[in-house]
Design brief:
The complex is a heterodimer of chains A (471) and B (225). Chain A is an alpha+beta fold. Chain A contains 11 helices and 12 strands. The longest helix of chain B has 14 residues, at 190-203. Chain B starts with a strand and ends with a strand. Chain A binds chain B through residues 285, 289, 292, 295, 299-300, 303, 306-307, 310, 318-319, 331-332, 334-336, 338-339, 342, 360-363, 365-366, 369, 373, 376, 431-432, 435, and chain B through 82-85, 88, 100, 102, 104, 154, 180-188, 190, 193-194, 197, 215-216.
Chain lengths: 471, 225
């Protein structure tokens, strides 16, 4: 257990802070290397240039000496007496005892050891605006004929200033860059850490059961927004499922409780009648028949629920048979036709060509029967039900239409959910309210989407099995 | 007829055995898979009713072991697993019929009857006669009292299924399975409408009805005589 966490440790535990620090260091080092090399290259270039000028000058004067002797050199130097002020050039011709003969230096500079063809650096004192100013000078010493010494140099204070400024610029440049990178990195790390912390807090709230919470999207379209959007989409799906599940549970409780309650009443009634002194025993069938019917109802509801759950959960991998939907529809219409006619409904089938698809025959049969039973339940006597199966290129189109009361547009989505019954309370008594939702689940299992539409008047249930389900 | 009932739920076993005995069967009860397999292998039963979920060996293992040992006693599997796939699995393991719990006792009785009498009417037959009703299986014609009766092909299939089991109770579920290949129960009693149409076709205008409804169970085609 860490006894006390220091703030620095806490910051360094953030991956983005570590990343920022690492990149900051890397960038600082690279920029330093770059600028230092530029500095070194510049300095050596400047030095080479000064040295080249000095050397050329010295050689010129040495030639002068050979051709015209000391007087010629002295004359040349006298002509250039004011060159210090103009170009910062330094000349001195001295005899073998280092006494000045000509040039713009008053004496042979102290501390400068005369070595032929050597380069030296020293400082000279110049009087500028009544103050002594020291100027660094780089110079070349040549030994001329007759023991004369020649010193040719140049003021390097300009060069030194340039290099010093360059050095300062390098130092501050690197420092400021590093500082900026680290500040930005720290700000970025803090921002990331804050968002992650915020997500974590939201997730905790969600885990405590509040599924309406969403992660914040700040419209910056960065990867956090992408993550938040993905998570939010997942949460929306989860919330939808949970709501459906919750509604289903409530309805299951209601739908099972009602027949179970009636069953209980009947059983208790039977018990009472067997008690001594009760009225004469009546036909037991009168008591138990309806009880068994209630039980059948419970059983059918449970079976349908299980079928929905299974259709939702399983893939078609377990049982994909070749099913001719046209033939299956004909078969189911044939099964229901007498019952529908008895209820005063006309039913017609249009399935001109084979409609083969890979699927679960029993579940598809259940889809069709559920739609037919719905029609039987909701279309009033005198109505018409049309069933059609068409093998259109790339898909198999299955529709059940009727001219009954239909489903209001706002109720259509809800009608596909378990236990929702559309229509008035009288209708609600019949059926389990699971028919359409099982049909929708079966359609989904087969890669199709079951949709409800307006047949003007009436309901049209459309289900297009995609080409993928068609062999 | 001697039945073996393999069921680990004592209450259910007692109830089923009582009902079956009242229907005239001799019933032995095995309360777990091991005992069931032992009795099924050693004894000679006319039919075995086996629960699918059992301690030690489940019903499906018992069936496949029996079949591997060359025993062809018909087996009816009872199961709380009712999906189409579960059913196919049960029949593939060698079961002869599959009934999902909970079921009506009449349904079980009808199916036991059907399994036991299977083979009484030879598959290859061209004519079935019940009283004055005659089915021509080749020409797919129905004649009663010498007069031809018009039926649709589905009605003929229904009638043939009932006629092959004349005298036996046939349940709605059995008809749905056999004639329409549906292994689930629709919410409405679609079969009843078909039966009443068939009844109208073959019984109307005749003194003695042949197609009877058995309350709480199903239908039977017989000469009540």
């Amino acid at each position: 257990m860490p006894a006390e966490e220091r703030p620095f440790d806490r910051i360094m535990r953030m991956s983005s802070a570590r990343l920022a620090l690492f990149y900051g260091a890397l960038v600082t080092v690279l920029i330093s290397i770059l600028l230092v090399s530029v500095y070194l290259v510049t300095r050596s270039a400047l030095e080479r240039e000064i040295n080249a000028v000095i050397r050329a000058e010295a050689e010129d004067l040495a030639d002068d000496m050979r051709l015209g002797g000391v007087d010629s050199v002295a004359a040349t130097l006298r002509l250039r007496k004011d060159s210090w002020g103009r170009t910062g050039a330094v000349f001195l011709l001295a005899d073998e005892h280092f006494r000045p003969v000509a040039g713009n230096l008053s004496e042979w500079p102290r501390d400068v050891v005369a070595m032929p063809s050597s380069t030296v650096e020293f400082e000279i004192r110049a009087l500028e605006r009544d103050t002594d100013v020291f100027h660094p000078v780089a110079a070349r010493i040549e030994r001329l004929d007759n023991g004369y010494w020649l010193l040719v140099g140049a003021d390097t204070s300009e060069r030194n200033t340039v290099l010093r400024r360059f050095g300062l610029a390098t130092f501050w440049g690197v420092g400021l860059t590093a500082l900026c990178i680290w500040l930005l990195g720290a700000a970025y790390a803090r921002r990331n850490a804050r968002r992650v912390r915020e997500y974590a807090t939201t997730c905790e709230t969600i885990m405590q059961g509040d599924l309406t919470q969403r992660l914040r999207v700040d419209r910056s379209h960065d990867e956090f927004d992408a993550l938040a959007n993905a998570v939010n989409a997942m949460l929306a799906a989860l919330e939808r499922q949970t709501t459906t599940l919750r509604a289903a549970f409530d309805s299951i409780a209601h739908d099972l409780r009602t027949p179970l309650y009636r069953l209980r009443v009947r059983l208790e009634e039977a018990q009472l009648r067997r008690a001594p002194g009760a009225e004469a025993h009546r036909d037991p069938e009168e008591l138990f028949g309806p009880a068994l019917e209630e039980l059948d109802r419970v059983q059918r509801t449970l079976a349908t629920l299980l079928a929905i759950a299974r259709a939702e959960a399983q893939g078609l991998t377990t049982h994909g048979d070749r099913v001719n939907l046209a033939e299956l529809a004909a078969n189911m219409v044939e099964l229901y036709a007498p019952g529908m006619r008895a209820a005063g409904l006309e039913v017609s089938l249009q399935a001109p060509e084979p409609a083969p698809l890979i699927g679960n025959r029993q579940l598809l049969a259940q889809l069709i029967t559920n739609l037919l039973e719905n029609a039987l339940k909701y279309v009033p006597s005198g109505g018409h039900v049309w069933v059609s199966v068409h093998n259109i290129p790339g898909a198999i189109s299955f529709t059940v239409r009727d001219n009954g009361p239909g489903v209001a547009p706002e109720d259509r989505a809800a009608a596909l959910r378990p236990f929702v019954r559309v229509g008035d309370a009288a209708d609600r008594a019949t059926g389990s309210g699971l028919g359409l939702s099982l049909a929708a689940a079966v359609a989904r299992l087969h890669g199709a989407q079951l949709t409800l539409g307006d047949n003007a008047p009436g309901l049209i249930v459309q289900c297009d099995f995609p080409a993928s389900a068609t062999p | 007829m001697h039945l073996l009932l393999i069921e680990d739920d004592a209450e259910a076993a007692r109830f089923l055995a009582k009902g079956l005995r009242e229907s005239g069967y001799v019933v032995d009860i095995a309360s777990d898979g091991r005992e069931g397999l032992f009795r099924a292998t050693e004894g000679s039963y006319d039919l075995i009713v086996a629960d699918r979920q059992l301690p030690h060996f489940d019903g499906l293992s018992i069936v496949s072991m029996l079949r591997r040992n060359g025993k062809h006693t018909p087996v009816l599997i009872l199961s709380a697993l009712g999906s189409v796939d579960d059913r196919i699995e049960g029949l593939r393991a060698g079961g002869d019929d599959y009934l999902t719990k909970p079921f009506a006792f009449g349904e079980l009785l009808a199916r036991i009857e059907a399994l036991l009498r299977r083979g009484n009417v030879p598959e290859v037959t061209t004519r079935i006669r019940i009283a004055d009703l005659e089915l021509d299986l080749l020409g797919r014609k129905v004649i009663r009292g010498g007069k031809p009766i018009d039926v649709t092909s589905k009605e003929f299939q229904l009638l043939e299924f009932l006629a092959r089991r004349a005298g036996q109770v046939v349940t709605r579920t059995m008809l749905l399975e056999a004639v329409w290949d549906l292994h689930f129960d629709p919410q409405t009693n679609v079969i009843d409408v078909h039966i009443s149409r068939l009844r109208a076709a073959i019984d109307r205008g005749f003194e003695r009805p042949l197609l009877h409804t058995v309350r709480g169970a199903g239908y039977v085609l017989r000469d009540a005589g």
